[in-house]
Amino acid sequence: MTAQEGAIDVLVLGGAGVDTIVYVPELPLPYADSYHIDSGIRTRAGQTGDFVALGLAALGLRTHHLDLLGDDPEGDLVRALHRERGIGLTALPQPAGTKRAVNLVGPDGRRLSLYDTSRAHPDDRFPEETLRRLAAAGRHIHVTITQPCSHALPVLIETGVPLSTDLHDWDGENPYHEPFALAADVVFLSAAALTDPEHTMRRIAERGRAEAVVATAGAEGAYLLADGELTRIPAVAPPAPVVDSNGAGDAFAAAFLYGRLTGEPPLRCALYGAVAGAYACTVPATRAGAIDRDELLEQADRTRP
């Protein structure tokens, strides 16, 4: 599927790559000469942009993904994932190779990610013509904070298409994240590195153009800032045992955007996000899976007070 064949509900920029998953006995992992990993060590396609695109497509939204990919086995895995899930992909050449990471996953589902930064360059850019063409076909654009998305922000703002971004574990100070935070209409981030989530969220809204800011807090739920009001969103009980937190934030973002694009109010969107995030924690990191629309709506209706 290509963007020219029809309108796009959500264009996802960046964040394509592969993860190698290693289940370890504990985190932090004590030093030892070696460990025996009985569950196996597996490499699969799926980084933040891939997981957001996967979540959106599973909810029935027409999704297209743009990023740089290498002509390498990792790139082939990413292309195959999109092909198998019916997600449009515009893959531009990346001579440095496809992004990759190693995720160490503990018994409680927490993870430690080791990112290979050699497979990107600060000067990597998307061609402006490609950006404008894909943006013109879309209703919404989700921008990951990977390179070369930072260079794309001025063009994206100029198109007038609504934007969202995920700042992940931003500490509220790192200047790299700030242009993304101030450019987006919807901002997601983790509360993990924030001493005062409300202060950071309000600062984003006051200085930028965000209509909604969401800070996820794992098992403690999430915070939603919308229309000037901060609301605590309770965590949703997972429908099965928790095995892995990898991709939970991406699932939350995808489901929240689904709600927004179907006209739901912010609180309902956040409930969708909480349901999808809880579901993602039940999916082993060794496979890429996402909640579908019927299950999302059913669980949201069952969870709603």
From TrEMBL:
<protein>
    <submittedName>
        <fullName>Sugar kinase</fullName>
    </submittedName>
</protein>
<dbReference type="Pfam" id="PF00294">
    <property type="entry name" value="PfkB"/>
</dbReference>
<dbReference type="InterPro" id="IPR029056">
    <property type="entry name" value="Ribokinase-like"/>
</dbReference>
<dbReference type="InterPro" id="IPR011611">
    <property type="entry name" value="PfkB_dom"/>
</dbReference>
<dbReference type="InterPro" id="IPR002173">
    <property type="entry name" value="Carboh/pur_kinase_PfkB_CS"/>
</dbReference>
<feature type="domain" description="Carbohydrate kinase PfkB">
    <location>
        <begin position="188"/>
        <end position="288"/>
    </location>
</feature>
<dbReference type="GO" id="GO:0016301">
    <property type="term" value="F:kinase activity"/>
</dbReference>
<keyword id="KW-0418">Kinase</keyword>
<keyword id="KW-0808">Transferase</keyword>
